[in-house]
Amino acid sequence: MNNSLLRLDAVSLRLPGTALRPVLDDVSLEVRPGEVVGLAGESGSGKSVTARAILGLLPPKAEVAGTISVGDLEVLSASPDRLREMRRTAVSMVFQDPRAGINPLRRIGDYLTEALKLTRGWSEQRATQRALDLLDQVGLPDPRRHLRQFPHELSGGMLQRVMIAGALTVEPQLLLCDEPTTALDVTTQAEIIAILRRLQADQGMGMLFITHDMDLAAAVCDRIYVMYAGRIIEQAPATDLFARPQHPYTAGLLASTPRLGTGHDRLQPIPGTPLSLLETPTGCAFSARCGYAIAECRIAVPSLVSDGERTVRCVRWQDVQRERTSVSNDSTVGSAT
């Protein structure tokens, strides 16, 4: 019996003819019941592909190795019928762009009730009442009016609420959120996050929260996996990750985030650009951008090293942690004085 809601073990994914390196490379992660887990990294690191692999939504010629388990179901070997049943009853996804995810030619009510009527056999009345309840839960003030509207009549924040309501129609055990606040203003972003956290806590769901925003990950997640070039390079409880990053990439993401009251006027960007799928470096994929890199980093891919509840893929993780802890302490002293 699998006690995890979601477990990925050594998952690798390659797209023949379009890439020289794997899109995902030896990815392992876990989401437990009631837990919010972050998957963070720059655009192009493989975060969204990971979510689609969990749902079994991959191109026909994709070459996949490893295992993906949702409860007791092994996704990669499951039949199409079993996958549809999983999506219908256990797992839902909130996509990044609601305007691309909701049919613009159909009313909001159709979007929310169709699956309930077709897959559960609910009556029109029962499905409509469920849709009204969900729109009320996600904070839309006049649910009955919104059911009659088309997507173009709603703002981006309102439409994202509709997409969250749609994801909750199946009462999922696991919710996948793929950057659900992209392109929203900060006030609307905060409202959406508050809704997700409240619904997750009320319903006891597990959640995989995908983001490139480290501060957002800290506010939402219990644990965070950091991904670079298709690999998990660090995993830790959120508070530990921010207090003591162990991988140079994680430290770079944190250092490049604007912060008030630190005494630093300039951001510290990560040099270089993310690795493309046409680049196949030996050793650590981050070594060309890393100020800590030594000759060993360019020879072989670092193994994952465990440090209590944490894991990191770096040969110099202790040096990174020591330096970042010192910087954090200095900033605290400076702000206090």
Could you give a short description of this structure?
The protein is 37% helix and 20% strand. The chain is built from 12 helices and 12 strands.
Structure in words:
By secondary structure, this protein is an alpha/beta fold. The protein folds into two domains: 1-90 and 173-337, Rossmann fold; 101-169, no CATH class. Helices cover 37% and strands 20% of the residues. It has helices spanning 47-55, 80-89, 98-101, 108-119, 124-137, 143-147, 156-168, 186-203, 214-220, 238-243, 248-255, 317-336; strands at 6-14, 24-31, 36-40, 63-70, 73-74, 91-94, 174-178, 206-211, 223-228, 231-237, 305-307, 310-312. Strands 6-7-8-3-9-10-12-11 form an eight-stranded mixed sheet, with helices on both faces. Strand 9 and strand 10 form a beta hairpin. The longest helix is centred in the C-terminal third of the chain and has 20 residues, at 317-336. The model is unreliable at 331-337 (pLDDT under 50).
| Largest sheet geometry | 8 strands, mixed
- Please state the second-level CATH architecture of the largest domain: 3-Layer(aba) Sandwich
CATH topology of the largest domain: Rossmann fold
Percent range for β-strand residues = 15-25%
Q: How far apart are the termini?
A: 54 Å
> What's the total number of strands?
12
**Any low-confidence stretches, pLDDT <50, length ≥5?**
331-337
Sequence of secondary-structure elements:
EEEHEEHEHHHHHEHEHEEHHEEH
Q: What is the count of structural domains? A: 2
Q: Order the strands across the largest sheet as they lie in space.
A: 6-7-8-3-9-10-12-11
SS summary, helix count: 12
